[in-house]
Write a structure and sequence with these properties.
Oligomer: single chain
Helix content: 10-25%
Order of helices and strands: HEEHEEEHE
Shape: globular
Distance between the termini: 34 Å
Structural class: alpha+beta
């Protein structure tokens, strides 16, 4: 599915946001899986919009009254080098955000730059 203004007929920027339960494989449970509530957001437009997803993270943390979070450079290969960060709550990684690497975009037939935020909400519920 190609994401562009030509194929979708949607005006730019494209903004997606979702909070939902995600099923994760786990050897620590009887069922072999567990549910984790996650927040995900994507911004896509003529520019990557990294500042938009970073601002969203800041706003979510203010709404949760959380002051003990920080960002550290991410080694995730899905991000452009130096353009990704892990979201840390104390010493625990609870998510990541960054500008998606062009190879990732190409694999999903997306022809616009994208920034994403994904984080677990489990520490807050």
């Amino acid at each position: 599915a190609v994401v562009s203004t030509q194929s979708t007929g949607m005006p730019l920027p494209i903004k997606l946001f979702e909070v939902s339960d995600v099923v994760i494989q786990s050897d620590d449970t009887e069922t072999g899986s567990l549910n984790e509530r996650k927040l995900c957001a994507l911004f896509s437009g003529r520019s990557s919009g990294f500042e938009v997803v970073h601002g969203l993270l800041d706003r979510v943390m203010v709404a949760l009254a959380e002051t003990g979070y920080s960002l550290r450079q991410s080694a995730e290969g899905m991000f452009l080098a130096g353009r990704g960060a892990d979201v840390m709550l104390g010493t625990e990684k609870i998510g990541h955000l960054g500008i998606l690497h062009p190879e990732v975009l190409e694999n999903f037939e997306i022809n616009l730059p994208c920034s994403i935020l994904e984080m677990s909400l489990e520490p807050f519920v």
